[in-house]
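name: query_chain
kind: protein
chains: 1
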Amino acid sequence: MPGPRAVLIELSDDERRVLEGWVRRPKTSQALAQRSRIVLTCAAGGTNGQVAAAVGVSLPTVAKWRRRFAADRLEGLVDESRPGRPRTVSDDQVDEVITRTLEGAPSNGDTHWSTRSMARASGLSQSTVSRMWRAFGLKPHLVETWKLSTDPQFVEKVRDVVGVYLDPPEKAIVLCVDEKSQIQALDRTAPVLPLMPGTPARMTHDYVRNGTTSLFAALDPRSGAVIAQSYRRHRHQEFLRFLKLIDASVPKEYDLHLILDNYATHKTPAVKNWLLRHPRFHLHFTPTSSSWMNLVERWFGELTNRKLRRSTHRSVVELEADIRKWINNWNKDPRPFVWTKTADQILETLAAYCERINDSGQ
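structure:
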């Protein structure tokens, strides 16, 4: 039987302006912005199921906030007060702390607020400031790095690389190729102390350098298997030798589609001439500053975390042998690397991020 009819939502001009402002404002809490989007979508018409699909939430969530807004209008979108001790901090004090956190800096020259410095500046307790920051999802002590590609062919390269991942050509093998250069053979100045109950493994912060090597790797994302070779130098000559190793390792009846970055050694005349003589090789270059698109970088992360970060080596020969042994063990039971995002999803996410940056006034 059909369910109950959804409550009709009609917005005044002032309500629509406030809701759209909550959606656009970068510093609005994610929960309030989502509730505002739900109400705006409900006002545009459609069933709860259609609204849920459009906003990306569950059906009960849409029904809840539709009812709350119909009953209490804008005030219904704010979290309801809960029973307990009466509040000792006013809304104005909360607004002052959050505004200072987002838009100001400590007067002592620090680059960011701590709970202690904010407590001194606001006259509140450290625990009160901490609760406010948790409620609004603020973490002034954390900073993340980011970089947007300026490649003029960014869109075309994204569609090309993602297309190869999601729909590889028939009778072809896709390989993600890159080099991990300057891998150091490090030996600690004292023996590593083993793990014990209640005590983690320990190693000295200082070390002795015993030389470096570069690892060239080609990852088959569908199987997770890796073709790899260490070289002492990192030139186009070594890259050519590695291409020849790939050519010898993969059966001749398969075409080879290589995902590469824009490093100069990949584009020298000698490399181009070799590729002309080996037409089964097809190169797909990632956009500049977009190493995240090359899945072999994810495999290099596994190598670093599981082998290189905590190992010690007295020579480059020992380092290269240890890496080779680890790779051989990996290839006995490889793990596939699955790409899931479409090119449109990536471009939409980047567009939304750029819009958010512009709206923030930074």
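note: The two ends are 53 Å apart (CA to CA).
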